[in-house]
Amino acid sequence: MGKEALKLIPKVDVLLAQDALQGLEQDYTHDQLREAVRAYLDGLRAAVLDGTVQEVGTPEQVAADVANTLRRRGAYSLRPVINATGVVLHTNLGRAPLGHEVAQHVAQVAEGYSNLEYNLERGERGIRYAHIEKVICEVTGAEAAMVVNNNAGAVFLMLNTLCQGQGVAVSRGEEVEIGGAFRVPEIMVRSGANLIEVGTTNKTHLSDYQRALSEQGAKALLKVHTSNFVMVGFTENVSVAELAQIAKPAGALVLYDMGAAPLYPLQIPGLGQQDTIKGLLKDGADVVCFSGDKLAGSAQGGILVGRKDLIDRIKKNQLTRMLRIDKMSLAALEMTMQLYRDPKQAAEKIPVVRMLAMDAEACRAHARALDERIANEVPGIGHQVLDVQDEVGGGSMPGVMLDGAAVAIDVPGLAAAELERRLRDVPKPVITRLYKDRVLVCVRTLQEGDDGLVCEALAEVARGVNTEGIS
Ligand SMILES: *Cc1c(COP(=O)(O)O)cnc(C)c1O
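Above: inputs. Below: predicted complex with pyridoxal-5'-phosphate.
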């Protein structure tokens, strides 16, 4: 048989005419169905050629297979998944999830027209940043604020506006690389600022910055949060407050790329003092920038806060037009910032804040409830509540472990790696954690409604194993 089977692969139009696919015409457009059939046939052809598939079914069978795959995978490449990894800001899973209320608000703004750049009082052109500047200032204590597309853009814009052609001192211990090829020294060069490296990898003293100011003519001191690694041992770095003390008399700026920043001290069990934006501005930072979708728990965005004269210059930079934030992100950010006015509201409605605040007992209670539900709804699989260590993730708070809980799953007849894979191939994929040859469903990152979907996914996978056993 072998490659002869290629000739038996049904034509696209023949498949589209089969009942199984005709039945999906209500839920999918014709083009989506055609695309799904094409993709399926490409896979089938490749499988026949490499010998993994020997025989091709009838058009009815093939069409039923395509329909099943489509039902499982949906029509879109980008789609929702369940985060059961226990990593709160999972870079590969879209970082911060928006809460339901915030997502509803975004949908409303997106669905129709909005006053994005329209002043409703005066009936004339308005400014997109006006919607958010006041509330950011309110929750951060800043004089002025500005928002762009992401924090990488914010760092670039800050340096390009305030430091072009001027020396900027950066500690050698803070010349970091962030995921996606964002390297501080290269960004500096591209922005037109002149990098003045100070200190050593592990230790930078105030006197190193002092020399950069007095001997090398530095016009700004830039601090970069070492957000995705920790240095332990014989280390030293200099605080914003100390930098401000030497920068002010020299007429230099103190800038801080903070990356992941909380709006107020997060209630993370076991975690001590954290820098907040408000504190850094009080300590004398002139401009601080941070991500909207890391610890701030909102949409992608780069938020710049600080001195009004400097933020005004940043607003006037032509580059802002290239880095400008979209209306959907702006809507999410405005509502999130409003929620931060009241810590209770924030803890309830901002998922990242809520998830980080969960202590071990809260996680265990959730894991026990899920475990019981699995016992009732998915007979015949192994399940056990375990203590685990969760992570903040998103290149923030490296080394900080959160005491959490999980349900370890075992499906008889299925290796852990295969179970993990099959849980990714269900209508709402469940991304689990593989640990010591076990599949863990970590509960900290589950959202409302996810428990039921996890049970459905487990039932579907278990059914698949059973029917394989029979045939
Ligand atoms: C994450 C991060 C960035 C990049 O922010 P994005 O919002 O991903 O563009 C820049 N600097 C630091 C220190 C970061 O942690």
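The longest helix spans residues 450-470.
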